Structures
1.
Amino acid sequence: MRRHGLFLLALAVASVVQTGCGGGSSGPPPPPPPPPVTVTVAPAAPSIRANDTQQFTAAVTGTGNSAVTWTVNGVTGGDAINGTISAGGLYTAPASVPNPNNVSVRATSVSTPATSGTAAVTLLNPLPVVTSVNPSVAGTGNFQLAVSGTGFVSGTQIVFNGTPVMTTVLTSTVLLANVTASQAGSFNVAVSNPNPGGTTSPSMPLQVVSVQQVTPFAAARFLEQATFGPTFDHLNQLQQVGFAQWLSDQFNAPSSLYPDPDNDPTTNSPGPLQARFLVNALYAPDQLRQRLAFALQKIWVVSWIVVNVDEGFTSYLRMHQGHAFTNYRQIMQNVTLNPAMGQYQDIANNDRANPALGISCNENYGRELMQLFTIGVWQLNPDGTFILVNGNPVPTYDQSVVENNACALTGWTYQPRPGVSPNAWPRPPNFSGPLVAVESHHDPSAKVLLGITLPPNQTALQDLNGTLDNLFIYPSIAPFVSKLLIQQFVTSNPSPAYVQRVAAAFASGTAFGFGNGQRGEMRAIIAAILLDPEARAGDDPTFVDPNFGKFKEPVLFMTNLMRATGAISDGSRWSGQIAATGQLLFFPPTVFSYFSPEYSIPGMPLLGPEFQIQHSATTLARSNNLVNLYVYGALTGTMNSLPAFEPLAVTPDAPGQLLDVLNILMMHGTMSAQMRQSVLTAVNAVPAGANQLRDRVRQAMYLVATSSQYNVQR
Amino acid sequence: MPVSRREFICKTCTTAGALSVAAALERYGVLNALAQGGGNYKALVCIFLFGGNDGNNLIAPIDDVGTSGFKYSDYAAIRTAQSGGGLALTQAEMLQVAAATAQPSGAVNFGFHPALSQTRSLFQSGRAAVVANMGTLYEPITRAEYVARTKPVPANLFSHSDQQQQWQTSQFDGFGTTGWAGRTADRVHTLFNVGAQYPPITTVAGTAIICTGIQNQPYALAPTTSPASIGLSISGAGSPEANARVAALQQLLTFDTGISMIQAASSITGAALQQSAALSAALLGITPLATTFPNTSIGNQLAQIARILKARTALDANLQRQVFFCSMGGYDTHTNQVPDQQTLFAQLDAGLRSFNDALVELSLLNEVTTFTLSEFGRTLRPASGAGSDHGWGSHQIVMGGAVRGGDIYGRLPQFALATGDDASSNGRWIPTTALDQFGATLALWFGVPQADLPAVFPNLANFPSSNLGFML
């Protein structure tokens, strides 16, 4: 451009000079007129989709000044309706296509404003893209489908299995439609945009599963396994939507909350957190998330006995709520760097070894990480049985691996509090965020782990990832973790085949249409546990496996009772009562939790973890401090709703109705005829009087709630 | 050899059961006569220190007398980390005692931890003894054999849950399902508690497996439960409606027992109802003890045990042998060992003194023997965080009038790393005395016939002696 301009300048000068010298009639001929200025815009007639950009160029001839002013439909720089254009000619199409859908992009010469060039732009609707479909698994019948993505406009339609359906465009990124799937199978969900430029997006799959006729008994039993106890409303809802839809809804339900700590170091009490835990368990909709978070608390244990400040324990509780439905590898990472766990298991301020000073790396977490949280002490087959060599089980790790893990996990400490130097070591507790690494305190030696060696001189984070990855890919982790979770939800003694199926879901990351296909995917594992045939077999009360089930631990026992009876409670004051029955919430006695997964019932070849805290003192406390107090007593902050049952106990033969209702709500249909008769006799022994209805209900409720039949979840 | 956890094979009951019945038939007449005399009562009290108590600082040599490696300065050199995380007791703060018997190294003078002043005074008056470097062992093993694994070693050493289980079951493959105190109690219950309704073991610290027998399950109660609240609370007690409620509750316990979990729950509840009624009545009938106990967890537990001892005849006149279980937690001193052990030992010490005084008050000093257990000792070398890591062998305390006190039984370890008694490089002591020997010594005093010992302590035959001699 520059040379051309100089040449033109030279010509112009030359022509001026020549013109200035002329005067005689016999002078040289007049110079030719200058060439006209033209402006040519390219591309000349593009089609551009909403929100897309297009770089225009303006070729200016006939003048040395190539500068142009860009306008859209006459407006310099354009506007939101017709699109904007930068000084350099970069056009951005509007978000919404105007009507008519053409605009004119004009470049006007700065030196010769009368001259300009134009491009005729045809605007098209954006390309629609589907990013997610909710639910991704649905039951047969009619359901609301929500599609998320980009490029949605007025008139966008969801295309369900090739057929466009009436669609509500909620926002430019969310569409809703009611669809009907009359049979099970895999369906395609796509989105199509109208003209101008209408196209259909690539599709995403939606799985439709047959909804069994979910009987009330089956619904109640499923809710015992998956929530803090059945309620009437939940029973009805689950019967309508079926297990798969219920799971899908629960996976997407937002998390219930814990209150912010007051950050006052002089007031630290577990009371408000314990009360909130109970209130969430009793009333919050995200039942499955909370039940899983509670299970994770009992596996990745932190106890208020050590972490005894609001800030610390709140961070721990929120962490488990937050990552419950993510991925086990993510859980491993989050917990290892959680400051509460850092305090509880001495990860924080774990210093590199220094033999000269007589210091060795702290082994506390390095051991428990393997023994309790990931792979266990014995090598397992995929079905959870011990691998045997010459008839003996084979250890997963030995003391040297513990020591190497310990050193691999050195160098982490609390974030510095205000006033604490970033170079300080060790640092005082600070629960405001994850642990951070101080490399000079990280052990630089090589670490020999399980089948691999971490090279020397890695950073703390590299070694941490190396250690966790090493455990995450170790085969035993799938059956070990699967069995722990099965025990938390369904049964203390799963068959090897059941463990194997859940372990397969851990490894593959999908089960029953749930999960994203990544190893350790929690949704797949939970779906595998709850939808497994072994878990669901007892939905039919006539199917009896004598060794199936688990004993209700105190917290679950109480929430089940309160939810079944519609209690109104602020959650306060119950933790002390529940503690008398062997489980003080948030105070597991050791890192082995309130009870050990390996505890076996005396005199039986069966595991019964919850029985470890069930003995003469605690069984009597269950009847006294929980049932008797709830049914007959009064506890500030809680009101039972037993009066709601009184209409069922009105007439002399009506108490049978009451027991039938309790049989559904509390025992999922398993109340034996003997038991029913025995309770009925006691109910009918309540004499006539002003309080007969009330006392009949209490009599029935007390006997059912204290019964072993109710105390066992099966 | 280990069997799958799912196979329930009773390893200790079949032949031993026959033996003890025979023994009972043989001795019934003699023993019953002694029992009538009322002078044959004995009790064992187990205090389990959960977490792994660092025995290195319970007692240590206080001077440099003796063979190199076994002196105070050897102990101190390793325990003192220059970074300030040192754990060594100073000679000035240790509470000096002279053991009645010199160690093989020649050492005679030792020092208790400064917080154990009452224990030291009991030791000096012959009422307490120390059993040194005791731990879980299949058979005696040297460091070379341990490192080369030429002899079997208990499974998962240094793991809390496994070692707690093994210290309580005395079965070192990790698959034990009964406790050695439970098996001991089974035997003496048959021999000495003929006609008793109440079980031989009472626990105030939950159902640890040590209390689980084959025939007998323990009675559990909380340490602070008042006598009146032991048992079922009945709203409207005495009314026809309440009576009907209790009758139905009892009846329900007999239904649906084909379901294993229901059966297990019902048998716990049924036993609880029966036994709690007896205990409640007995405790309501006694006057309070004059001895006061500190208001600590261990203090409250030992106080409850003392009250039950006082009420024992009212509880069950046929109960001539009882075992009690209590515990303390917090001994897992990975960090802050110095202040933590100070606090814990002070509580233990005060509890032991009060319990001793209560036994004097009850004239049961010679009848009751108290002992500590802990799932392992700790590394002599400190770990980062001013604490220590899991060890193996450790020292325990035995207390009572029947104890041959004022002495240390067994050999203290050589205070050297990566050699001698060290199973590692941090000072984890290979035990020089076996848990089985310790338990057998107590069991013999308690009345378990010599011939029955192998059934209770399966590995006992691997050791030179089944009686360490610390009981009179």
2.
Amino acid sequence: MSHGFTARGEIAVAGYAQSPVVRHADRPLGAIAIETALSAIADAGLAPEQIDGFVTGSLLPSAGGQSAVDGVSIVTANWMAEQLRINPRYCSGFQGYGQIPGAVMMAVNAVASGAADYVLFHRALHNPPGRYHENPMTEARGFAQWTAPQGFWGPLSTIALPYNEYLQRYGATRDAMATVVTEARANGARIPWSYWYERPITPADYLDARVISDPIGILDCDIPVDGVAAFVFTTAERARDLPNAPVYVAGYAQGSPSVPRLPSHWPLDDIMDAGFELATRLERHSGLSLGEIDLPQLYDGFSPFIYFWLEALGYCGVGEAHAFVQDGRIATDGGLPILSGGGALGNGRMHGVPQMLECYLQLAGRAGDRQLPSRTLGLACHSSPHFGGAVLYTNQEL
Amino acid sequence: MSERDDAPAKPRPVPDERSEGYWAAAAEHVLAVPRCSRCGGVSMPPGPVCPHCRSTEPDFQFVPVHGGGTIRSWTLVRDAFLPGFRDDVPYLLVDVALDEYPNVRLIGRLVDGPDAPLHLGDVVTVTFDDLDDDSAVPAFALAR
């Protein structure tokens, strides 16, 4: 199959680091970010002075209106470079929701174009004090005037509307999602850096948990955390001379909504239309069939995203994901390992990091006692399909 | 300042130069949607550019609609992230496609109470929550 990605297989991940994922860190996010960045650089067999590119997406994804303070509640690429006292040739940040694929594309393109030889990619997530999405506003200005006056606020109601649309349209029940959430938590419980390490849950735990905005309950949401991950990108040629097995980028794609809507209004059809287009773009860009993917890491910051990604990528028919996930079909042991890395539900609110990290660890053969046999093509998804993206990784030379 | 622990005020819409026609109509209990003066396309919310024809001078006119629509989804909010709604939970929000412009979807409170039995496609009509004499917020009621 022809492919549109002129640098297909020519850019690789050469190393990584992941901080512990905690509810509230005892030091500023920037300190953890610097430490994690230096660990990733060392893991790749490099010295800090060799890094000449920095990329991140620095969004603080809270509806609480907290001010973003660089180095404390967010960590930008510029801040990272300054603190490391590096004057990089390339330094940039992704704007948008699908921060991980969005910023990975920038890192990949920077290396592919020669804008930088070694790009440090990082993602730093912060959990501010207080209730994450609570906003004391009494005046609704700008975008907020279209949602806050009627009490529509925060991502739980945003995702509750298309999720309920799904349940009603396809006759699905809320109970079916217990399989998804328990699978994420079972896998997260095996990951030492996860907030939920050694804390799996049962279907009864899920069904008994507090419902906040029907049908979204507290266990349908990832838990806000402090945590940082970093990866080093370079050319495949350079990566082959470095200590770790290279994991190559085989393609990527983004989705975006085609219809203007009220802020934070995500109708089901908008999500799915963009999701199907994203899947088509991904095949065209990579020249690979999605059927070849043996490590699809789907995004689960809110549990219904799993249904949307499964259907958009063609793992089951439209309206069938709630049945598809049952009976062991998404079990890491013997099924389609869509949540083998624990996802966001099993790690904490690390955005698309768990998906990207699982692709890297499994394909580099660095997953330790969680290593799955003979995986060759991973997909790391992030966000809703209509505001998100996905990156294909492989350990095969293309 | 009062010593009483009153519930905080609900967020009050602050019109801007693009939205003042919408909120002025709502204050009169009229639902009016923005129509581009260049191409006639209707979209919500009114932004700096018409999403239909890309005009950067859409000069949106606010066209009254009768306010009927159908329910495309709903959620029962049990825990408010806006403190002003703390005493209102649980309340229903409905996602409504307007009859006259089905591509325009609005989200409003459903005034029939939290236990109203709902189905996809149920018919609603617009109503208004008065904040005071000068301000009202569109909401929906099940059609009888």
3.
Amino acid sequence: MAQKKSVVSEAQQIQLAVELINLGARLQVLEAETSLSRERLLRLYKEVKGMSPPKGMLPFSTDWFLTWQPNIHASLFTEIVGFLHEHAGVEGIECTMKAYRLYLEHVALNGLEPVLTFTRAWTLQRYFDSKMLRTVPCTRCNGHFVAHTLELYDNYVCGLCAPPSRAGKTRKAAQAGAESLAA
Amino acid sequence: MKSEQLLEEIREANLNYLLLAQTLIREDRAAAVYRLGIGEDVAGVLESLSTSQLMRIAASNTLLCRFRFDDKLILDLLVGQGKDKSMGAAHAAILMARRPVEAMV
């Protein structure tokens, strides 16, 4: 059945697109999640952001989500998505957006950098949907963390229970530590 | 005298909690379910309560909101026992997401 063109549904699509753009979605995300044409999305993007959307492909490696800091952020986001899915009954892009807002809130409250951008979060959801990634429980804390689907994880210990030796010890962190000591 | 004052404070905390819960639910139901740690059904009941019902429920000698951190590890993480405070909060949030919610039986 061909979808009838309705002004109301188009307005909703534009509304959704604007919200996505404000969250930092790239053009590919907009094309996948709204029914608006590429030209309209381009114009919308320029109007909202005041600049052209970044060109090029989206990041496409699942490995990024398994490195130490991204893994923690990705796991946090995934667990929020899981919670909303299970207990609040929201799904699809709405779920991703709500979970991402809650994630941003958490990050801002704890003075962390939002390592996971919206487009990354959206890609992460796609990897889960296509079963390239899954979560595995940590044997020490029972938290669930993002992991490859096809890898074996016997006695898995998460990056928070057993952080790698240099994890989080960046130059920036050292500076912040020195400043708080001086103050 | 002392216990009367305590009861009054409990009532106030209950009322504040219920009003905040209602505001959260009306603003964004899904986010409220996450923030409050309650089930959809409980959220529905809370949302539908009238002001006079709220007052009646709040006037109790027990608190209405439960302590959610009954897991020793989560509590330690939140208090900041670990080395890195901000990562501790993220760890706690990851663990909290799998905790059961308050639901109707």
4.
Amino acid sequence: MATFYIAPDGDDDNDGSEASPWFNLFYATGSAQTNTSDTIIVKDGTYAQTVGADGDSLVNRYIKSQSLNPKAAILDFDGLNTQRIGSDSGAKIEGIKFQNMNPTNGSSRGVFNFFNGEYIKDCIFERVSGTDGPRGRGGSFHTCGTRFESCVFIDCWSSSPSAFDGGIFSTTNDGFDFEVVNCTIYFNANDIPAEYFLPFAIIHLGDGGSNRTATVSNTVTLVDGASLGTFAEIRNGNGTVNVTNSCLHNAGYTGSEAGVITTDPLFVDASNSDFRLRPASPCIGTGGLT
Amino acid sequence: MKYIGPDSDGTGVTVDTRENILATTPQQGALAYATDVQRLLTYDGGWQESSALMIPRSGAVDIGVEQASNLAGYGVDYITDKRLSNVSIGSNADTELGGVRVVFSESLGRNLTQVYLDGAWQTVLTGVNIQTDAAERVPDIEFTDFSPWVLSLITGNSDATDINGVPVIQNMKIDMGAYSAPLVIDGGSF
């Protein structure tokens, strides 16, 4: 287990040490640079990334920002046709903001394709969206055994106008369960192209299995500009979505599970990405101890 | 049976240094006490020296010596005012109050130190450590030893923090979303 670094003033021609860091995250995660169980530390700063992922590049890597502050370590993929970011085993990501990831080609199964027990904590994902073609089919995050904890998702969507199978979080086959815990999900419908909005759902259990479970707890979802038609889409009724102690406002939720409310969560200023809770928020102290 | 009687000086027991005693040739069966080496000697054609010490302290009871009377108020079953060195505690067949033993537990796969109390062998908790687990959401402080023993004390606040650094669980309550509201005022001034 070795530790490597990327930094805003780094260079991919360097050796990845702290004194001589790389620049692009997905150069660092390449199999020629790092191995499974290696740690990649993202030094604070905003990075205009120039290298996309290469399939299963996150396999078992531990990627974290040095400050563990996602507002200080920002990876911006704007203008880059990001390849599918895959992980076949146990990646851990902590304290990083990923933004402007909008791939339009490649295989299906999401922008992030998590496949086996990933742990994503204290991260911000803004505009991580598949907008067309097969990308849209898998959701922003195609998940299996993934746990998202204390993460924020801003204007993330993924949908295909030709197939009703988008979703921020998507899964397909049997046993591909995932958890969303203490997360904040926000998007403004006005930011999403109209042709992609209507089929959109937060949770999508696609074709390919009958025994999938998505668990959502202590999570706030706020949709501005319009209301979702449905919070969770379960293709052919196969699979289960368990929602507990969450606030789903304009999110298309019509169930009656324990502790789930649909009132305004009263963020301080959602349109400017300030998702702190106002003192009168119904979300304060109403989560479930998990 | 050998007769032990007074020596040629009419003294019942010669008390002198070991060197002086060995230089004498008393009657058969004479008894002497060597003050410098604290040993008894008997004469049987030659001086025979005891292997055990005889320490003339009436208030002390020696290990392994059967006492015919309780000279200092202690019974023969007691050892007191002694220091045991290089002693190990192993099995103990006596189920009496205060018994101590070290036994191997097949089910746990490790050794246990036990004391016999209240009619049963009670395992003494050893090797206890205190830890807080930063990756854990449930708010607690854990006393841990081996895997079967974990004692958790709930503090009300979690070790794990939310994206804004505030404990996910505060005062046994948890907020929804990624930004926990800071309920606890800790330090500072108005």
